[in-house]
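[worker-b] picked up task from shared queue
[worker-b] task type: protein-ligand structure
[worker-b] ligand name resolved to pyridoxal-5'-phosphate; SMILES cross-checked against name lookup, match
[worker-b] sequence length check passed
[worker-b] input payload:
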Amino acid sequence: MSGPATRLLQAGSPVLRSGSGPVNVPVVRTSTVRFESSAALEDHQSRRSAGERVASYGRHGLDTHQALEDAVTELEGGHRAFLAPSGLAAISLVLLALLSPGDHALVADSVYSPVRRVDQTLLQRLGISLEYFSPGRDDLAALIRPNTRLLYLESPGSLLFEVLDLPALAAIARSHGITVAADNTWSGGWFCKPLALGANISIQAATKYIAGHSDLMQGIAVVDSPALARTLATAHEALGLTIGPDDAYLALRGLRTLPVRLAQHQRHALRVAQWLHAHPSVERVFYPALPGDPGHALWKRDFSGASGLLSIALRDADAQQARAFVDGLRHFSIGASWGGYESLALIAAPGRLREHGGWHGSEPVVRLHVGLEDPADLIADLQQALARAVPVRQDRAAA
Ligand SMILES: *Cc1c(COP(=O)(O)O)cnc(C)c1O
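[worker-b] inference finished, payload out:
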């Protein structure tokens, strides 16, 4: 078998018809699918009902969608992929596909925090109960109930980048017949393969690294088995989820350069993280690729690299100074989301930090996405903004 980059670049490529063809799959726009006869239509519909991936209507997506599905299935090492109009829609798809009234799900407390809004505004109304646990401290086996159907987690976690022992947690869940779903957005699917580590479903906000250029919204869910594919296909259809072919094309284009972009994000982020780690105004850098990070050993075992997203806690600073620091940055724009080529900074809301069971700090935390700009420029920018907003206390400067 060829290597992972080769397979990623070739997955979903158009087959040459009559001796030639384009490199890239065309953007196939349609609402209606036409059939040469009623019998052909019926044949498509029955193959589709049997679980085959054929389109009998535009909503199912045609060539461009299928090429993207093939490529992300290859990337995640799964059985089948489902496309959704945003990362959050992919998460909601998985939750709604797997959970029924009366069901219970265990959710790592470090997950992308809008999951809690889905819980509060939708799942609770449906009689579905989500329970948040701290993977580092709580005993997962002791929390499992007879009606626990799903373990949902994200490693490393959003905001503080806690690396979880996914193989160990997944093994416990699976021994109880519980499905395991993991949000794999941080790794872009390139540096981590949750399905190989024991998860049944890997979810990504393709909005981030797969798109890579901050120009589209998209989510994917990749499942590891035909049975789960049927379960997700039913919910995907019922919810009417679909994406536009132009967005499918852009995501596929992003995928072709995912490995090189991520390698560069990693190089830049490591340099920035090491510089921040040595800065007296920085209390802590949350980035598992740093040797001192509590998740470093697990990260080394389960990941082949680190992306460009990290956080810092500012030392001897209050919320106002954190704002001044972020406002003083010139090469980092202020904004949510990440995974594009550009650098971003965002203050983490204290309430969201407190959702993480392992967080006892009171320092303001700033999340940084380290982009593809020259790292020396980014470091100089961080230096000037820190110097103005968070002056080093004299006793520390002397130490
Ligand atoms: C951004 C993000 C999402 C949601 O993706 P959207 O496309 O913005 O809906 C989900 N999980 C993680 C970890 C994210 O960072």
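[worker-b] attaching auto-annotations
[worker-b] Residues 4-30+61-256 form a domain with the Aspartate Aminotransferase; domain 2 fold (CATH 3.40.640.10).
[worker-b] releasing lock
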